[in-house]
Amino acid sequence: MSLAIIISYLCGCSFLPVVGKKASPVKESVYSGPKAKISIADFEIISSKISSQAGIGLRLMLIEKLTGTGRFTVEDRADLLLRVTVSVFEPNASGGRLGIGGGGGLNNGLIGGLINNVNKSHMVLDISIIDTADSGTIFSSKVLAQASEVDEYAAENKILAQDLAIYENTPMEKTINICLQEALRYVKEAVPLKYYKY
Q1: Where do the H-state alpha helices sit in 125-194?
Q2: CA-CA distance, 116 to 133, in Å (whole number)?
Q3: What is the percent of the chain where pLDDT is above 70?
Q4: Which pTM was predicted?
């Protein structure tokens, strides 16, 4: 059994970067259609490893990512409400030389590797999108990410809110960026076309 397969099995990861070759980022086409209106509730903090102030920083980062897509207008009152709970926030990675990282939902089997592997920084968000007209839930899921060392990803994505500056140049910086980027992907895919009307 190859080393990569063994590591993937032990860590429960769904993604392994190609060793020795830097993957080119996929550039998304610029969106220029109608926008959806969404509001972002204050993040609920369950994990004891993150302060409420850092939670504010995470919220600001997600707002920036959402508005940056050109698909959403973030307002205090909107058609949609995004709720986010920080259920796991573990910045104390103790090492790792292979730079294994990944993000995804609960169904891909990554959660076991995240919770059980103490050598990685990891983060889990519970997200839900609610239609404010009838309080119905459109979408809900867990979003998770992990990282074992600072590599090219962190070097190219130094976008941390001021309240999270303590994690700059650490595996947690990479974990935060992966997790929020994955949350953004989920929101983009989950919001039905009927909400894009502004």
Answers
A1: 152-156, 171-190
A2: 40
A3: 68
A4: 0.73
